[in-house]
Design a protein that fits this description.
The structure holds two protein chains of two kinds. By secondary structure, chain A is of the alpha/beta class. Chain A has two domains: 350 residues, Amino acid/polyamine transporter I (Up-down Bundle); 167 residues, Rossmann fold (3-Layer(aba) Sandwich). In chain A, the strands form two sheets. An eight-stranded mixed sheet of chain A has the order 4-1-7-6-5-8-9-10, sandwiched between helices. A two-stranded antiparallel sheet of chain A has the order 2-3. The chains are: A alpha/beta, B alpha/beta. The interface between A and B is medium-sized, with 24 and 25 residues.
Chain lengths: 667, 156
């Protein structure tokens, strides 16, 4: 029996961990919340003193849009615009929606970096003289240099594959919340001293902000049209919501419940930090001063206009700038990661050539995609010359059209996939025959769509750039897809399986590996076939994540004594197996620990692992070749061979298939 | 199913069903033929002996021989209401191209097909492997079935 231990070679584990709704919320807020620093100033310059009302309105609209992401996430664990649109409306529309989304990401980095650079520049302008440094600071020039440095830094980090830590996101949000609360308290104090006057609800659209609408008779910036135009200029505050769809897969069980908590957190933060602070800025700072002095760094302006001693103003301004740097610089990284992620997703579908997805020889990252994204973002920064208003003008195209596609897809799904039980449905539905007609969703879609259309007229640059870019990218996708299918080797029998990024570590002894599992209950789940994982789902449905370690064991049958661990030694089917395991775990939001053991005797290894790891339970799928009864017979035979004489515990073993279960107790 | 209770192998294997075949068998088929022929009279099933041999050869783990030389062919029958077994000791091991290890000890088991007996069937299988996992070399050296019987009775 001991001879078999020598035949067991390397063990590797990939650990899946899930995050709380706090962390999920923090990740989204580091992107979504950063618009607080520039949205107000850009809106103020675009259409006049009414801007704070519309920024608040956009934050309320954000809440309605976040709810739409809850429904789409309940349908697609790994969702997002591309997946949702592809499943509903097909690849062509999905390609279009992705083009808009990529345009969004390409502009997020420049607007965030330039805005951060401007905040820094204006702070240096005040602080440097104290140190007898009398440089003439050109804020926009500083912003450009700063932006290029930040993009370069994150380009390098992403090439190396340094993962963004959600712990950092939480720290940033805590700090920003602290600054936000201070600003709120001091703002209310200032209002109490100076008195409160409602900001004027008056439009004063500049020529640039009217765009082509000034040549269209019925598009006068008054009444409802004026309101829609103003909303269109404020919509850039919405950027970052797509991050929620990307982060959903990592949320812990219960997934939808935690997603809702994350949504509430994001909504409240956005409403207060972006909406209320922008509103207070407009109450405290006279509109003309916002335009002349603070349009490029509104929250710094708020700090400087507080009714507090000067040193406190400078301190608050410094805090605001530090918080701006943390949030906005973080948003730059999110934009690079997001663009890389979405382009990889479409490349997996064969819509981009494989050469683009080529991995870095040292770091294993998709360095070509990352580099292209970083170059485009840098070019945009240079062309903008640090003008955040120009960037703001171009910005909303991607946000609005990708939201429009996403909402339309979710509405279509209500009719196309009406039988699919949703864990959560967008409210306000009317039952007509077999369909739940989504009146709520349709109304929100109409709002977003009308904003998208009006922006085509009012934002010339966004329209020209956005449409051109979307068309170019769409053509690139279509050409690549066609070329890919032509070049396909008909003799190639194995398709490329998109590989999970797994961290692989090795242990020399099985018992060493199992030492890391310390929860009171331990379940061992042997797996073999990616299409036969119903037993794993059964375990995940019932297991309590806090009390149970779930180890998913794949025994790779290898004969011979020497075998070096290398993930590439696994076949495509084996990689697909691990991908399915990770997808299932993500769907349930429960932690599993996939393990590979190389051996020539799977049944022996399963039982040996169960003993060494002190597992309470083994849950297996049925073997189609032998059947459940024969499987248990093999287990019983092997158990007699391997059971230690001093074994005084018990292990429940179950074979689960379809809705049936066969169990036995090993004692 | 609840699992094993304290179980004695001698409760399913009578001393008369312990056979030492000093001359061995020429191949696996001969061994199986012998075992089935020995147990066949205890089955009142309508199946013929040849059909039984064929069924045995088609059973899922038929060619599984443990590395200690232990072989446990087993079948389930509807007509049985109790377990039947024979232990065949072959000091001259049985070799065959279809098996990885030589066979020194064969425990052939016929079990009732009913669900209520399945747990006990599994208990017997694990008890057999446990009982013989380290003792095959010792048993193979025994000269008389009575010695083997005493050994089995001494097992807990």
């Amino acid at each position: 029996m001991n001879k078999k231990i020598k035949n067991v070679f390397i063990l590797s584990t990939a650990v899946l961990s899930f995050i709380s709704f706090w962390r999920a919320g923090a990740i989204v807020l580091c992107d979504f919340g950063s618009s607080a620093y520039y949205a107000g100033g850009i809106a103020a310059k675009a259409y006049g003193p009414a801007f704070p009302y519309f920024i608040l309105a956009v934050m309320i609209l954000a809440g309605l849009l976040l709810m739409a992401y809850i429904e789409s996430s309940s349908l697609f664990t790994r969702g997002g615009v591309y997946v949702v649109v592809r499943e509903t409306m097909g690849k062509p529309m999905a390609k279009l929606s992705v083009s808009a989304l990529v345009f969004d990401y390409l502009l997020t980095a420049p607007i965030s970096a330039v805005s951060a650079g401007l905040y820094l520049a204006y702070l240096l302008e005040i602080i440097l003289p104290y140190f007898k440094i009398n440089w003439h600071i050109n804020p926009r020039f500083v912003a450009v240099i700063f932006s290029l440095a930040v993009i370069f830094y994150f380009w390098k980090e992403n090439i190396k594959g340094v993962k963004e830590s959600s712990q950092n996101n939480i720290r940033i949000i805590w700090f920003v919340s602290f600054v936000g609360i201070l600003l709120l308290i001091l703002s209310f104090y200032t209002i109490q001293k100076k008195g409160f006057v409602w900001p004027e609800f008056k439009f004063s659209f500049s020529d640039e902000s009217l765009g082509w609408a000034k040549y269209v008779d019925f598009l006068k910036p008054v009444g409802i049209i004026g309101i829609i135009m103003a909303m269109g200029h404020s919509i850039l505050a919405l950027s970052g919501l797509e991050t929620l769809a990307q982060v959903y897969r990592e949320i812990e069980d219960p997934k939808i419940k935690n997603l809702k908590k994350a949504v509430i957190l994001i909504f409240i933060f956005g409403l207060i930090f972006t909406g209320v602070l922008t509103f207070l800025s407009s109450v405290i700072i006279p509109y003309d001063k916002i335009i002349s002095d603070y349009s490029e760094n509104l929250l710094s302006g708020l700090a400087m206009e507080l009714s507090v001693p000067y040193y406190l103003k400078i301190s608050m301004k410094t805090l605001v700038v530090v918080s701006a740097l943390l949030m906005l610089v973080g948003a730059v990284n999110t934009a690079i990661v997001g663009a890389n992620g979405i382009l990889n997703r479409v490349a997996e579908d064969g819509i981009l050539p494989d050469s683009v997805r080529k991995l870095h020889p040292k770091y294993g990252t998709t360095y070509k995609v990352i580099t292209i994204v970083a170059i485009l973002q840098s070019v945009i920064v240079v062309l903008s010359k640090g003008d955040v208003f120009l960037l703001g003008e171009a910005y909303a195209f991607g946000v609005l059209w990708s939201l429009s596609f996403n909402l339309l897809a979710i509405i279509f799904l209500r009719f196309k996939d009406y039988e699919h039980k949703r864990e959560w449905k967008y409210p306000f539905n009317i039952k007509i025959r077999k369909y739940d007609v989504p009146i709520g969703l349709i109304l929100v879609f109409l709002i977003i769509f009308s904003l998208s259309v009006i922006n085509l007229f009012t934002k010339n640059i966004a329209t020209i750039l956005g449409i051109s870019f979307s068309i170019i990218l769409y053509l690139v996708f279509t050409y690549s897809e066609k070329k890919q299918s032509e070049d396909e080797d008909i003799h190639k029998i194995e398709e490329d399986v998109d590989e999970e990024k797994v961290n692989i570590s090795t242990e020399k002894e099985i018992s060493d590996m199992f030492k890391r599992f310390t929860k009171p209950e331990k379940i061992l789940v042997p797996v073999r076939n990616p299409n036969n994982l119903s037993h794993l789902k059964s375990v995940l449905e019932k297991a309590n994540d806090d009390q149970t370690d779930i180890v998913v064991l794949y025994v790779k049958v290898e004969k011979g004594y020497e075998y070096a661990l290398n993930y590439d030694n696994l076949t495509n089917e084996e990689k697909e197996l691990f991908r399915e395991i990770i997808l299932i775990a993500e769907k349930y939001g429960k932690t599993v620990h996939p393990v590979i053991i190389f051996s020539n005797d799977p049944v022996y290894i399963i039982l040996y692992s169960a003993i060494a790891g002190r597992f309470n339970k083994i849950v297996m799928g049925v073997s189609p070749s032998v059947g459940a009864e024969a499987q248990l017979e093999n287990i019983a035979l092997e158990w007699g061979m391997i059971r230690p004489d001093n074994f005084n515990s018990k292990i429940d073993i179950s074979i689960i298939w379809e809705s049936r279960e066969l169990s036995y107790k090993l004692e | 199913m609840t699992g094993q209770k304290a179980f004695s192998l001698s409760s399913v294997l009578s001393c008369e069903n312990i056979i030492i075949k000093k001359e061995g068998f020429k191949d696996l088929k001969s061994l199986i033929d012998f075992g089935i022929s020995f147990l066949y009279p205890s089955i009142s099933d309508s199946v013929t002996i040849n059909a039984l041999k064929e069924k045995m050869e088609k059973s899922p783990s038929f060619y599984t021989v443990f590395d200690n030389g232990l072989f446990i062919p087993h079948l389930k029958f509807e007509s049985l209401n109790d377990f039947k077994s024979v232990l065949i000791i072959t000091p001259k091991p049985v070799k065959d191209n279809n098996i990885k290890y030589d066979i020194f000890l064969t425990f052939m088991l016929f079990s009732p097909l009913s669900k209520s007996f399945f747990e006990k069937h599994l208990n017997i299988l694990s008890s057999v492997t446990k009982a013989f996992r380290d003792s095959v070399p010792q048993i193979v050296l025994m000269k008389e079935p009575s010695e083997v019987c005493s050994y089995i009775k001494s097992l807990k």
